[in-house]
User: What shape does this take?
Amino acid sequence: MQDRPSRFIAACATGHIGDDLVERAVTLTVARTQGHPLNWCSDGWRGYAAILKRAYRQPLRAGQRGRPPLVVPPYVRLTRTIKHRDEHGKLLSIEIRAALGKVIPQPGTTHVERLNGVLRDRLNALTRKTHAFAKCDTTFDALIHLHLFEHNWIRPHLALRLPRERTPQRYQHRTPAMVLGLADHPWSFLAFLTTPLHTTSQ
Assistant: This one.
């Protein structure tokens, strides 16, 4: 699940496409964003609307006795981009349809599709003809998550750079984490491997 303005990958799930896989990714995204309003874009697969309803529904308390009904908040919006093709696979038209709420501005799955292409380009285990197999699910998940960490925290994105004035460098290069205010500079793998993480038990 990718935040389009910042290109930050909030969550992902690996496996065979289906309700269980998408529900894992959606549930993890909702938990990491703490239920904040999000605009969702998807392709023509019909399962997203029902999964989002289950993830976001909240009890509507009206002061009456009994169990309150579960409703989806009005700020949850899902827009589907459906591509219609002929028998040869040629694109004929693109249909924009609101599955939840109103149609969001500039809908589409272009950024996620581009990220999928980048993953195939950088990870040999994802290419169609390769000898670099990931022989178990743990190895495959580690490859994906390590690359997503590099995407979010280490590698600056050209679309996120800002112009500078009166400095030798023309642009300030930013990572998706810098856009969200999670970091003030691009990380390195050395910092990733040597920075201590302090946690507190509750």
Residues 137-154 form the longest helix (18 residues). The mean pLDDT is 84. The CA atoms of residues 27 and 55 lie 6 Å apart.
